[in-house]
Amino acid sequence: MRVARIVNAVPNNHSNETNNDSEPNIAVNPSNPNQMAIMAFMSPDPGLTNGPIYYSTDRGENWSLLFDVPGNGSQDQTIGFASSSNELFMATLRADTSPITLNVDRSADPTSGVFPNIENPPRTKLDQPWVHAITVPSGPNAGKVCTYVGYGDQTSGYWATVDVCFDALAANPTFTKVKLNPRAAQRDGFHIRPKPHADGTVYVGYQSWQSTSGSNVTMNMVVARDDNWGNNSFGDLTDPSDSKAGRLVANVTIDESTALGGQRPDNGFDVQVDPTNSDIVYLCWIDNGGTGFRLHVRRSLDRGQSWSGDLITVDNAALATMAINSQGTVALTYLELVSGQWEAHFRTTTDGSTWDDLLLARTATSGFIGDYMRMVTVGPHFYGVFPAVNTPTAGNFFPNGGGTVRFQRNNNGTSLLGTDSTTIIASSIDPFFFKVEEKDVNFILNRNPIGQDEVDARRLQPHGSTGGLPIQDAFRVVVDGFTAAELGLTGPASTLTVTSSLSNTVMPITCTGNTSDTGNYGAEVQRFTFHYSIDFDPADQAFNFSGATSDVTLSCTAGPVPGSALLTLIKQPDPFMLHGDPSWLSIDLRFVVARQNQSMFGVSGITGAADAPRFIQELIGAITPAQFDALPSGEDDTKLYTQPNDEHGVPVFNFALAKVHYIGLIGANKVRVFFRLFQAQTTTSTYDYPPGAQYRRATSNPHGQPIPLAGILGPEYVTIPFFAAPRVDTISVAMDQQTDDPYNVQDITAHADGSEVDKIFGCWLDINQPFKPDGTTPNNVLPIFVPPAKDGPFDPNDPNPLFRPLPIGQAIQRALHQCLIAEVAFDPAPIPVGKDTSNWDKLAQRNIAWSDVNSAQAGTTFEIRPTAAALPPQQTPDELMIDWNNTPASGVATIYLPAVEAADLLTMADRLYPVHKLARFDEHTIRCTTSGITYVPIPPGNAVNYAGLLRVDVNASGHQGETFDVVVRQLTNAVGHQPPPPPPVPEIQGRTESAAQPASAVVDEIEWRRVIGAFQLSIPVKNRETLVLREERDLSVLRWIAKAIPNTSRWYEVFQRYLNLIGGRVSSFGGEPGTIEPSPTGDGVPTRKPHHEKGERSFTGKVADLIFDSFGDFIGFVLEMESGERRVFSREPEIERLAERAWRDRLRISVIVVEHDRLERVLIHKPPAPFAP
Amino acid sequence: MQSIPELVQASTFIFSGTVLELQASVPIVTANELLITVRLDRSLRVDPVLGDMRGETIIVAVSSTEQFEVGQQAVFFANSAVHGRGIAVREVAHVDVGQADLVAAAVAQLPRRHLLNRLQDATVVVDATITKIDPPGFTFDQHDGLWAAAHMRIKATLKGTAPSPRVFYFATAEWPPFDRMPRFELRQAGIFILHVPPVDTPTHGGTLPGGSLVAIDASDFQESSESASIGRLLAALE
């Protein structure tokens, strides 16, 4: 939201003042935008030799006069802050010398009264100095301040000149005088405007007078350029007509004797370069080309080589000035004489063709008001100053609304009053400071809608407990464009109040604190993220509405900026799954890993792969809801295997279970649950059926039921369904021939009292079955790319090898951990398109990647949705919001997106955020530190998701046993249409306010930011010896998968880097990645390292006892040693046989165990020699 | 220690006041131990734009706080540092408050001393009436004073030799430093104190012919009623 403000700069205790403070200039400290300075034609205190300068330390709300300017005032004056040194530079023509003398003054603290001239000896005989200061951001001269003072040198004629200083902070800076015009000319014009860019490009605009006829001057508008901070004498841009330095942009005529509103002509010349792209440069001037004084704005997109025609023209204009903010928005401010009054306009454009128009003021004319005014930017904000007659009538400022105005000096609303608040003071010209700041308040609704079912369920848990009420982190408010002080923030515990259309007793909302983007609460403009929990009263009054849903308006105000969002409450009498807390780790969707012969909940163990469907089918019926809730959720129990056997060679099988709740009296028939696995961690799980892309389904299978199909985006399969029933052979039949009832098509019978009924659904995640149960036939299920027969059957001999079916791992799996989504497909209550797992309770998700570390990098591949290509320019693009949580702030992360140019992404970040932590790592990778919250703008793209790789280099030293949870959310725009209650009018201190509230404060349409998807990367810190074996086997499988990914796939580059990451991890854990071969079973791992390097321990003795569980199954043995007994556990039949023989024969054995006493090997020693007879 | 007239000449903010605090702060000024708070009891030389300052607190940057104690009264000679949310000045010197009347008298003499200086430096002083004004011609010089020629009918020449032609120049430009110079009107009559422009003031070239006489200070015109007084001052200078 754009917030505009005007402040009359004359202090209250100068209320008697009647000077004409014309020709104002402004500087704002980029390091601390609270600090601002304005200079104008101002008289010194009578008798005083130092002239005044206006100064503000509160972002322009209050201005004081500092009597600092040497020279008894000035005859011309410009000022500028360096980018980061806090030094203020002034270039003034002293009012007490003849010939005219230039002072270039510098001060780190203008309030100190110490403002020494640093250009010695001073230049004399010159005109209109224009100073720019910039801090060199990088390279060998990083930190040095370059200053550029453009002026008309009159020592011999009148020639455009720039004094360049490469180290203006030096004790005795050296200034190099550069004459700009290499051509034969009569002389040069009055305006010499240098404009440096942070990449070292420096543009300078000037006018070259060709001829005069009386007072008519024919002149060229010239733009010169230097590509190395001014070291190249501004000779890097030449004109094609003569190959001489300086591009001739236009040839115009100006009658220097005419006047407009008492104002002399030939003003309003300016050059500005886009801070996001030094190729883009704008030029404006005012000539006699129109009916009066015509303002022209032109643009070059190629570093000044070629120029547009007029992007905009304005007749009867004066004092034009431009500025370009960090978002590339161009602002143009000028005065326009309309019906005998000066109108001050502020106009912006993002494309050069469409210009909005904010009328700042409409005031009387009063003779000469100066030859220039100025506007600057800090981040996205514009700050400027214009001269105007100071009659305080409310209608004089923002006559069309759109901003607020403040006079510091006494007045009665129509006339100025003296310091006695009584005497009428004659009007005069004052400098009017204006600021147009981009401030935003955005809601991010992590939980929307909130169902009564969920609230009821949470209420069953102890209040304040995990899973209970209040709902933690239910939403966030992101406030952008403010300083901490403006929001009253002193630290992470500071809060921002959010109200709702429900009373706070019905739905209490609590702000639990905030996160600062920069990690501190200093003077910088930045972005703050506030966190909120939502509670509900025991009487459930929030759900006391008649319909199925009700929208609650959430509102807050940050400074003058209101923000709102709609939170939907639903009475959901349908089957549902709980998101859990957080939503990407649904508490109603679990992974189960079962080893061969491992029984569970009374279901006998799996005898082999062909038996796995039987196991899950029986498990669905056997497990109770309470047992479901008690299923472990830790890494070791839920990390899916990519290999068919575990580290000990035991066949292992992956399953998923889902619990569906039902509360009602009618019951629900044919409640189906579809299970789908995505390729990697994803933020793009938005529901899309019908017609279905990621969520494709067949409307009817041989049993007349809908059945999920493989998801398709673009040319490739992106999701794959899983079933409890055996998967059909997709080489023989199409996938729509799959059935899955009755296991995942169940009827739910209601309880007579309407209390909750829970049903369990499930599937076999056969991602680690590269072979059919015979162990040799490839288990080819799906191609990578989509053939004409999208759902099969797939031809293993298809002429196009990319259309041939592959095992699921090669076809789909693009990470060690994927996103699993369960969908409740209940016909009477379809899922609306556009919903996702975070905001609809018929979608549940497990989206977590584990990446154990010791000294290694953690990481995971992922996919995200591009920002819509046709996003209107004023709309915020999608962003990743990476919450580093407890990750050490000293860590470094990189995000690799091969489809995205890092430079483009950083350009977007520069435009969006006043400050950010992103930096270029390589052409397609950005880097950031792992502290607080990091926002990453997502560049626009087509319908294909971006594949990426997140690497996190955690400084894990001293964190053994801890787990760092990194949460990545994708934010997008959301819109609602319920008008919010009017926000409170902000009270801003001031003696006189004319508060024309911006029209946009009253809105029909509510916009907010919402989370479309999220995933978590958990990084446990473990002993490296425990990690190497599984990591090696994972690498072996991943290398096998990589063999199938064609280089035309969006995953190819990502996967290559992923392999490098995993290889590095193997190496870091003590393995040798170079020796690991691709293998679908993970068996490409070579001989192990020496035992002592793996943390192995050996125990030698004899088997004393064999141990069996209550089912009579062997579970281990007792080893009798000299030092005592030790229990050794294993369910392996071979170990049972071996142990039994060793027990029977009293053989001496050595048992080698590794971490967690896991049995690694058994050595059988030679039987003792019999005693001699 | 400078004399009181010298201190008056070197200071633009002179007042008697009572020390309220030996530590002070003022918005936007970096706090330091040399700032004291003084209540202004009597304005002796204060920019009129500030109005009646009696009773206002002034922050004074002193060279040493050891010279002051709370409740102490003194006459402060100072120059403006900050006018805004509060007034801050930089002390030049201070004297006992008992000398306030002496200081007031010295301040009251400032206009006369200034006029005396103008008369002393003047090339020509005439009692005259402006009969014609020639507006300035066009110039490309944006720092020109846009000098207008004022033709005079001279009634009496009080100092020097009446110029020939009987013309002096005055600035009409609206930009500094000319915006602070006196303007003249047709038929304006009085005492004109005319100078050859000093070389170190920005009254160069452009529309001002070489060797011209100018009136560039507000004191360079005095009403006819001051004729006798001017005569006495001129006599005193001789």
How many distinct helices of chain A? Answer: 10
Radius of gyration of chain B: 22 Å
Poorly predicted runs of chain B: none
Count the DSSP helices of chain B.
4
The end-to-end distance of chain A, rounded to whole angstroms, is 102 Å
Could you tell me the strand content of chain A as a percent range? 35-45%
Give the helices and strands of chain B as they follow along the chain: HEEEEEHHEEEEEH
| Secondary structure: number of strands of chain B | 10
Main pleated sheet of chain A: 9 strands, mixed
Radius of gyration of chain A: 37 Å
Structural class estimated from helices and strands of chain B = alpha+beta
Q: Alpha-carbon distance between the termini of chain B?
A: 31 Å
Helix content of chain A: under 10%
Q: Please state the overall shape of chain A, judged from the principal axes of the Cα atoms.
A: elongated
- Biggest sheet: strand arrangement of chain B: 1-2-3-5-4
Taking all residues together, what is the mean pLDDT of chain A?
A: 88
- Overall structural class of chain A, as computed from helix and strand content, comes to mainly beta
Describe this structure in words.
The complex is a heterodimer of chains A (1173) and B (238). In chain A, the strands form 16 sheets. In chain A, strands 32, 34, 36, 37, 52, 55, 59, 62 and 64 form a nine-stranded mixed β-sheet that branches. Chain A has a six-stranded mixed β-sheet with strand order 26-27-31-1-28-63, with no helix packed on it. In chain A, strands 42, 46, 47, 48, 50 and 51 form a six-stranded antiparallel β-sheet that branches. Chain A is built from ten helices and 69 strands. Chain B has 238 residues and is of the alpha+beta class. Chain B is 16% helix and 36% strand. In chain B, strand 4 and strand 5 form a beta hairpin. Chain B starts with a helix and ends with a helix. Classes of the chains: A mainly beta (1173), B alpha+beta (238). Chains A and B meet through strand 4, strand 5 and strand 6 of A and strand 4 of B.
